[in-house]
């Protein structure tokens, strides 16, 4: 993938879905590289010309997006968001440092929608390794739309965040009841420290008489120990069918003989690969109604 | 009833205030950029403040089902630090064209110094350039003269009075403001600005044309429910519903709506969308909390 391909893709999509006024405006912006001040202004003014409607992307357009950049999924993107992303790809610059300076200035002065657009655009931006600290910073936000832009349907964290930051992203998604199944690469980046932190968090929630998302157990399953089996037993006795399913699936991923014994006690069977992921997706999709 | 509070400094207020405002029917608010109670010393704190207004505070309001807009400007008090003011002026173009920025404000005079005059004029030019309304803060001291001067200078710079909101009026200034075709805003603020019984009398006398009210609630002793409370008082004292709606909702919408950044559909159609964001996934509202209900205390603000 190159920036050029991403630009072509966005231009093609926007040509289909921008109102006439937006097309004319965008053509003017793209004619020549924008001087810095003009870029800042254009970046802010985008929605006045493009509108803010969601882009009705077809299946093949979404597929094309995924080929552009593995995991890139612009489903739900709005006209202004795609246009802003295109402007980001067109920033005139001589060096990565110059590019970073412009991007940082945009981040520092961004409004709520601009921030979300900036974070969602990270997987397409050039010099991806220079945006790691920014992405970790984005995970710290308390603004839901901004957090979602970086955490959900965005392959950048999967590709570039170090494990500590990745784990914070997942923990924060759990804490804020964001849908884990929409985090790109969730299964591939499971790890033991994360599983331990989530177990502790589950105990904390239970001690306070609160519930937590059944998706948590998707991350814990492979790291179950004899000590944590009572936790799973508790799930199996839950009144909530999703918690029971989550407990069963977690056991099905464990290699622990005691876990497998508990699994057959619960009349569950081992599930692997695609089917296992599909079941977790279904649990996730039902968990936040 | 639905209300707009077109001047309220929510960064200084608590979530209790947001809850109470929403319950009382406030659907949209405008937060003018102002000073923080003591002068800032760095341009970076201005940048972060403006960014806070269009970012986190907008988000925070949305958690309570309230649409948050703002005006961006260099306030008169801090215009007196000229070295800093120069730097702030360079920042403003980065912010005035953001979504939801409905004006340049609050700007104008405080001590009515030469520095204040300079940056007021520069910002009038900026407002003209980006075609935004202007929200004028009128001074506490030497108020009448300061108000007249604010308007004269705005006219001198070729601003359309219909694009200028003169704020913090009282019985002594309102006639001049209306005569010149400007919008006359009144701040219902205990002890220093207007009380709301006086406000009822002003509206009885002048009618609802180009008049609207706000709370200017901030870090001082002030009342974020001033708009709904005053609306109730107006109705109790026999003002027609249409008049009350104009003074507490429609006129503010007409004035700041000229920015193109505050369409009524934002809150009339947004409710369903915002709900999905509201109680899930945030660190402000926690599930299971019940909104605090104001005791039925007096609606009179003195």
From TrEMBL, chain A:
InterPro entries: EboA_dom
Name assigned to this protein: ERAP1-like C-terminal domain-containing protein
Source organism of this protein record: Hymenobacter roseosalivarius DSM 11622
From TrEMBL, chain B:
Family matches, as InterPro entries: Metal_Hydrolase (IPR032466), TatD-like (IPR001130), UCP005295 (IPR012022)
SUPFAM superfamilies: Metallo-dependent hydrolases (SSF51556)
Gene Ontology molecular functions: hydrolase activity, acting on ester bonds; metal ion binding
Name of one Pfam family that matches: TatD_DNase
Transmembrane segments: none
Keywords from the named record: Hydrolase, Metal-binding
Protein origin, superkingdom: Bacteria
Family stated for the protein in its record: Belongs to the metallo-dependent hydrolases superfamily.
Record protein name field: TatD-related deoxyribonuclease
Species for this entry: Hymenobacter roseosalivarius DSM 11622
């Amino acid at each position: 993938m190159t920036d050029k391909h991403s630009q072509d893709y966005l231009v093609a999509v926007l040509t289909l879905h921008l109102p006439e006024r937006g097309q004319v405006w965008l053509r003017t912006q793209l004619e020549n590289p924008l001087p810095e001040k003009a870029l800042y202004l254009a970046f802010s003014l985008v929605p006045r010309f493009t509108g803010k409607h969601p882009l009705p992307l077809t299946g093949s357009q979404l597929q094309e997006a995924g080929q552009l950049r593995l995991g890139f999924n612009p489903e739900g993107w709005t006209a202004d968001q795609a246009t802003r992303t295109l402007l980001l790809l067109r920033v005139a610059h001589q060096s990565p440092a110059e590019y970073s300076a412009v991007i940082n200035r945009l981040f520092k002065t961004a409004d709520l929608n601009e921030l979300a657009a900036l974070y969602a655009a990270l997987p397409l931006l050039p010099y991806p390794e220079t945006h790691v600290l920014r992405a970790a910073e984005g995970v710290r936000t308390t603004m839901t739309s901004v957090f979602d832009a970086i955490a959900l349907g965005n392959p950048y964290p999967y590709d570039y965040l170090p494990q500590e930051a990745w784990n914070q992203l997942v923990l924060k998604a759990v804490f804020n009841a964001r849908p884990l199944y929409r985090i790109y690469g969730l299964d591939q980046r499971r790890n033991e420290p994360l599983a331990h932190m989530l177990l502790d968090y589950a105990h904390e929630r239970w001690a306070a008489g609160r519930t937590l998302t059944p998706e948590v157990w998707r991350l814990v399953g492979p790291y179950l120990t004899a000590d944590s089996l009572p936790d799973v037993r508790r799930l199996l006795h839950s009144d909530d069918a999703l918690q029971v399913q989550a407990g069963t699936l977690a056991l099905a991923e464990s290699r622990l003989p005691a876990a497998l014994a508990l699994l057959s006690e619960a009349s569950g069977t081992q599930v692997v690969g695609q089917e296992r992921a599909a079941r977790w997706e279904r649990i996730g999709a039902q968990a936040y109604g | 009833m639905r209300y707009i509070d077109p001047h309220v400094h929510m960064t200084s207020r608590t979530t209790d205030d947001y809850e109470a405002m929403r319950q009382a029917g406030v659907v949209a608010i405008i937060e003018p950029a102002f000073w923080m109670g003591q002068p800032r010393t760095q341009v970076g704190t201005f940048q972060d403040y403006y960014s806070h207004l269009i970012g986190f505070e907008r988000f925070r309001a949305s958690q309570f089902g309230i649409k948050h807009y703002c005006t961006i400007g260099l306030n008169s008090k801090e215009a007196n630090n000229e070295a800093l003011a120069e730097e702030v002026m360079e920042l403003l173009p980065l912010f005035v064209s953001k979504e939801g920025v409905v004006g340049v404000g609050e700007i104008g005079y405080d001590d009515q110094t030469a520095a204040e005059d300079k940056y007021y004029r520069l910002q009038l030019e900026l407002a003209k350039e980006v075609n935004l309304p202007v929200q004028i803060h009128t001074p506490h001291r030497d108020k009448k003269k300061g108000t007249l001067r604010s308007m004269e200078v705005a006219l001198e710079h070729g601003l359309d009075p219909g694009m200028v909101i003169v704020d913090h009026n009282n019985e002594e200034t309102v006639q001049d403001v209306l005569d010149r075709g400007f919008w006359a805003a009144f701040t219902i603020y205990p002890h220093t600005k207007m009380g709301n019984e006086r406000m009822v009398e002003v509206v009885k006398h002048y009618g609802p044309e180009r008049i609207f009210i706000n709370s200017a609630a901030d870090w001082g002793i002030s009342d974020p429910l001033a708009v709904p409370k005053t609306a109730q008082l107006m109705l109790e004292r026999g003002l027609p519903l249409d008049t009350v709606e104009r003074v507490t909702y429609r006129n503010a919408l007409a004035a700041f709506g000229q920015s193109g950044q505050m369409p009524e559909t934002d809150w009339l159609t947004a409710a369903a969308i915002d709900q999905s964001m509201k109680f899930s996934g945030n660190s402000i509202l926690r599930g299971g909390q019940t909104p605090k209900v104001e005791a039925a205390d007096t609606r009179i603000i003195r």
